[in-house]
């Protein structure tokens, strides 16, 4: 049996493999971007029409698309409902865009570090990477062609960084200058704990093609598997065709439930944000008490993660540290898979939304103890 050459670049998702451990009794998970279970809404399907059990449009339910377009206009992105494509989770958007844009050797610009599941998909299709960060766009110059630029400017995964207005404008200008497709991934924007600019970078683009996507996983429930994308009109039809080939259409029951929640009282989202702000502050307090001598970090103004960089005098094998932590029932995400090339420094991503306050205290204390022993 001969498989496609593409499968030679296929590998398991590090985070999905690690998340298998969270079902173990007593596990304290700082690994995945898991929303707190008590943030999930109470769902009532008793009044849902049986019509939503029938096949539906590939583009998504019309009322939901109208609502999404209206919400995006409030964010500064002027789009029509006819530009909205409802997705089976934003990960599907990454897959569809990769199918649309990437062949073997296609030049793709990504942040360093960047979202590991996006890197997994882009690499599968043969992407060649150029890396940049918000503070330094010098790697993105017109003498080196770039076909697609992927960015997570609002509460970036994994770093939690939120681009300033100047950084957003600079990135949009650079995408225009490169005449590359700007692909903006924005799943965390509603989880803002402090004031910061959250205007989509795509709203600043003047000439080049663009794609903007977001998700309902972090604000409602990831099990609904629902997200959406909007894009410049030149890309939309082919993305719909790719969606048709992938799964015909997204779950209509999930779309109906999400629309109902969007039209309901907004206080629920405010309560979720307030709860996560408390969790962020509790987590940072524990980091300051236990990890200040070991690592540095930027306080996230939103999102679900802390990104820790171990100090220069610490030379620790993070994979070994992870195995030792798992043996003590603590899970975290090593930083290496978020980079396209090996890095000399040690990084770790810690999720703060899933654990209770007592679990935070215990888990971070164990990580600090293990780092002390490894140093």
Structure explained in plain terms:
There is one protein chain. With 375 residues, the protein is α/β, with parallel strands linked by helices. 43% of the residues are buried. The chain has ten helices and 13 strands. The strands form three sheets. The chain has a seven-stranded mixed beta sheet, with helices on both faces. The model has no long low-confidence stretch (mean pLDDT 92). It is globular. The termini are far apart. It has helices at residues 14-19, 62-75, 90-101, 116-124, 165-178, 233-247, 252-263, 267-290, 318-327, 357-374, and strands at residues 28-29, 84-87, 107-111, 128-132, 148-151, 181-185, 210-215, 227-231, 295-297, 305-310, 330-331, 333-334, 347-351.
Q: Top keywords for this entry?
A:
Aspartate Aminotransferase, domain 1, seven-stranded mixed beta sheet, 375 residues, 10 helices, 13 strands, four-stranded antiparallel beta sheet, single chain, 36% helix
Q: How would you summarize this macromolecular structure in one to three sentences?
A:
By secondary structure, this protein is an alpha/beta fold. 36% of the residues lie in helices and 14% in strands.
SSE diagram, text form:
Blueprint: H1 14-19, E1 28-29, H2 62-75, E2 84-87, H3 90-101, E3 107-111, H4 116-124, E4 128-132, E5 148-151, H5 165-178, E6 181-185, E7 210-215, E8 227-231, H6 233-247, H7 252-263, H8 267-290, E9 295-297, E10 305-310, H9 318-327, E11 330-331, E12 333-334, E13 347-351, H10 357-374
Parallel strand pairs: 1-11, 3-4, 3-5, 5-6, 6-7
Antiparallel strand pairs: 2-8, 7-8, 9-10, 10-13, 12-13
